[in-house]
Design a protein that fits this description.
6 helices, DNA Polymerase III, Chain A, domain 2, nine-stranded antiparallel beta sheet, 44% strand, alpha+beta, 3 domains, 374 residues
């Protein structure tokens, strides 16, 4: 095996495929990247049973072949290579990388022990790559981090007609984002759902954000298996999680709630500012007053306190107070893009719904206010 490729192209390809490498694995070969050189092309693949990443790029191939090498070590080498063309070859049990007079040697891993990378399911439709990446980022902040509750670490992908809905929840918050997508065929009344690991989905969506269109591959009749995401010469395959998120329909119905309109960026900055005096697990309190047309953002206890007042438009009750964990509140505020934010408030210890207030409310984020106010 021998090929020649540009440094930037090679580094990008290795970096893309390395996204699928596990942080730790009892199976050493899963830490490897598979490089396959053919006529005028180089394919780099990574796989850890939960996800797979594959990218194809142009290369000047002198001798076709394939080799399995330690992925993170190869990525480290790519980052320090001098500018210029990169020459790679297999010499016995060593894989060599040479550029600008610098030469590296890597031990190869046993190719026969490497599992076959699963093929991507057939294309089911496409979505704007940039919009998809933004939408996944908006809901993934609400996904759980506790691997003992795998269902809550996922993002629910729902496809119905020409609408895609993404949702995530860790029991304390629930984020939902809707956007348009284009089915490959007339879907009719068919509704397809898949629960995917939030971290893997977010990584894939961001990596494909500049591809124009992301093609989504899945089997609409399967309750488990794989979901593929492909753009340009890059492809990621993610294994579904078992189960599904609980429904959010009734949770988002806040009858009798007070409605407040605030400047999103100003509120986020105020929360970030006053939270510096908050002890661990201490909430930030928001006191809304229709009479004063303001919200007082404050945190802390005794002499260690901070407060800032902001203008607000409040309907419903004359006054309402809520409090949230500052990290959760900032995650929610920063997940929106518009200047103004709509808040539906029931009071302390109850639900609060944030939305952009646009027609159809494409993005909504539900938070639970703490019972004990500051």
């Amino acid at each position: 095996m021998e090929f020649r490729v540009g440094r930037g192209v090679f580094t990008d390809a290795v970096g893309w495929a390395a996204r699928a490498l596990p942080s730790k694995s009892p199976v050493p070969v899963l830490g490897g990247l598979l490089l396959e050189a053919g006529a005028g092309r180089l394919t780099v693949s990574g796989f850890d049973f939960e996800t797979a990443a594959r990218i194809e790029t142009e290369a000047d191939t002198a001798a076709p072949g394939e080799v399995l090498v330690l992925g993170r070590r190869l990525l480290d080498i790519c980052r320090v290579l001098p500018e210029g063309p990169v020459s790679c070859a297999v010499e016995g049990t060593r894989f060599t990388v040479e550029a600008g007079g610098t030469r590296f040697g890597l031990s190869t891993l046993p190719r026969e022990e490497y599992p076959s990378v699963p093929p991507a399911p057939g294309s089911y439709g496409g979505v704007d790559a940039a919009a998809f990446a933004a939408a996944v980022g908006q809901v993934a902040v609400a996904a759980g981090r506790d691997d003992t509750l795998p269902v809550l670490t996922g993002v629910q992908l729902r496809l119905a007609g020409d609408e895609m809905t993404l949702s995530a929840s860790d029991r304390y918050r629930y984020a939902v984002r809707r956007l348009e997508w284009k089915p490959a065929t007339e879907a009719g009344d068919v509704v397809v759902e898949a629960l995917l690991p939030a971290r893997r989905l977010l990584d894939a969506a961001r990596s494909l954000s500049r591809c124009g269109t992301v093609r989504i591959g899945l089997d609409p009749g399967a309750d488990s298996g794989l979901v593929g995401f492909e753009g340009g010469r890059m492809r990621a395959v993610v294994r579904r999680l078992e189960g599904r998120l609980p429904g959010y329909g009734s949770l988002f119905e806040l009858a009798g709630a007070s409605v407040a309109w605030v400047d999103r960026a100003a509120l986020a900055e105020a929360v970030r500012r006053v939270a510096v005096v908050a002890e661990a697990n201490s909430p930030v309190r928001l006191d809304f007053s229709a009479g004063e047309g303001s919200v007082l953002v404050r945190a802390g206890y005794a002499d260690d306190v901070a407060a800032q007042r902001l203008p607000v438009e409040l309907g419903g009750a004359g006054e309402v107070a809520v409090a949230f964990a500052p990290g959760y509140l900032l995650d929610a505020l920063n997940s929106f893009e518009g200047e103004r934010l709509r808040l539906e408030l029931l009071g302390a210890g109850q639900r609060a719904l944030l939305s952009d207030g646009a027609a159809g409310e494409a993005h909504r984020h539900l938070l639970m206010s703490v019972k004990q106010l500051v």
